Amino acid sequence: MATAADGRGNWGSRAGFVLAASGSAVGLGNIWKFPYMAGENGGAAFLIVYLAIVFTIGISVMLCEFVIGRASERSPVGAFAKLRGGAWPIVGFLGVAAGFIILSFYSVVAGWAVAYVFKSALGLLQTSDPAALGRLFGDFSSHPWEPILYHAAFMAMTVAVVIAGIEHGIERACKILLPLLFLILVALAVRSLTLPGAMEGLKFYLYPDFSKVSAQMVNGALSQAFFSLSLGMGAMITYGSYLARHENLTRATLMVTLFDTAVAFIAGLVILPAVFAFSFDPSAGPGLVFITLPAVFAKMPAGVVFAVLFFVLLTIAALTSAVSLLEVVVSYFVDQRGMRRKRSAVVAGGLTFLLGIPSSLSLGLWKDHTIAGKDFLSLMDYVGSNLLLPLGGIAVTLFVGWVILPRALEEATSRGAHPFSLARGWVFICRWVAPVAIGWILIGGL
Q1: Contact 394, 438 (CB under 8 A)
Q2: 87 — phi, psi (to 5°)?
């Protein structure tokens, strides 16, 4: 096992880092959230805006986070303290808080995927009747204790991977499972596109109607890009801190962004054509994955097998992202507080599980109890995705663009070993474009 000088641990290989970072980015944000966001916001118009944001602002912020992590070899709080100090470690604490809050409700939704593995295997989803599937999903998600059990199971898996460490836990899992997820998604996309009526969905997804573009839609695409790429929550800073000095950081950033975006795009090809094929509403929201896809599987030969495989791999995708969020909190306790990895993982995982319980109950027993007009799960999503992530993103880009720029450029080029031809554009985005654009997310969120 590769180890850093201080014993924190390193990735075993460049491929391991790319797959682990891609695993952090690839998750429910791609397969669950992106398709329904596209469905709610005009399809192809949203896709084009989203891609433009990802490959300008998103990739730039990701590189900033990798630079901060590798330059400091510390968790987010320690990274800002080491590179500058003063009040900057507060940004690291924002990342830890964002990861903790997002993981709490993320685990609840991931628990739904775990449950659907078993429901698929038992044949409980073998109907193409959208009303029946909608009732099944509604009854399950609003149940007082069943979703909490699956939430607990998912958090236990997350804790187990983090306890195993960087190379033998996170990296090993991602090397095996992400390629499988990609292959299954491609197979499902092919099947979805061959359904009667699917071409209407493909047209909705690929032929833009720019009259759908609005400030609200652009704000949603910005927010989704941050959520999907795992930015602003300290995950990429943490993963970058385990990367060897000689690795090409800009190439790795591009590879992670391409992999993440490809998964999101293919997930749209899986879900949106099927939405039209079964006459579902493309703006139906979060239930599309848990209602539409079971209907698709019910129409397929060996549909039970495909359903089980999909929800297993959806769980795995969620797991690789959840692991990165928990690792942010764990790395803080290990680096800054001197706690052992096992203890910090168990404590952080237990607290995250407890915070997730109100999110689960807010869809059932507590659905009539709201805070600022939102149920608890929606509130956690709002605070994490619309407030904390933008704050972290603004601070990260300003920190790199204005505070540590010479050190950042040195790190981005691996001390000149890997030329960075787009460095001027990156600096311009970090200093001006990204802070303004991300500030728009924050204002929109407020």
Answers
A1: yes
A2: -90, -5
| pTM metric for this prediction | 0.92
b/e 227-261 (16+ beta carbons within 10 angstroms → b): bbbbbbbbbbbbbbbbbeeebbbbebbbbbbebbb
Q: pLDDT of 375-425, one tens digit each?
A: 999 999 889 888 898 899 999 999 999 999 999 999 999 988 899 999 999
pLDDT of residue 90: 96
* CA-based nearest residue to 432, from 406, 407, 405, 398: 398
Q: Cβ of 302: how many Cβ atoms within 10 Å?
A: 9
Residue with tokens 């929550």: 233
* Higher per-residue pLDDT: 297 or 311: 311
Helix H segments across 338-429?
341-361, 376-381, 389-398, 405-412, 423-428
Closest to 84 in 3D by CA, of 403, 392, 337: 403
CA 55 to chain centre: 16
pLDDT score recorded for residue 229: 92
Distances in Å between the alpha carbon of 153 and those of 25, 32, 103, 334, 337? 22, 19, 14, 24, 28
Residues in the chain, total? 446
C-alpha distances (whole Å) from 344 to each of 163, 326, 328, 351, 390 are 9, 10, 11, 11, 27
Q: How far apart are CA 110 and CA 319, in angstroms?
A: 8
441: which residues sit within 8 A by CB, 6+ positions away?
Answer: 219, 222, 223, 226, 386, 389, 390, 393
Whether the Cβ atoms of residue 192 and residue 267 lie closer than 8 Å to each other: no
| Residue 10: how many other CB atoms lie within 10 Å | 22
| Structural contact between residues 50 and 226, judged by C-beta atoms closer than 8 angstroms | no
Residue 374 phi/psi, 5-degree rounding, is: -125, 145
Nearest to 66 by CA among 198, 327, 220, 241: 241
pLDDT digits (tens, 9 = 90+) for 323-338: 999 999 999 999 888 8
Please state, in angstroms and as integers, the Cα–Cα distance from residue 59 to each residue in 105, 126, 435, following that order. 26, 41, 14
Show the tokens assigned to 21.
Answer: 């970072």
Q: What is the pLDDT of residue 6?
A: 45
Give CA separation, 431 vs 233, 428, 438, in Å: 20, 5, 12
- How many Å apart are CA 371 and CA 321, to the nearest integer? 27
Report the C-alpha gap between 284 and 272 in whole angstroms. Answer: 11
Report yes or no: 220 and 52 within 8 Å, Cβ to Cβ: no
- pLDDT category at 302 given cuts 50, 70, 90 is confident
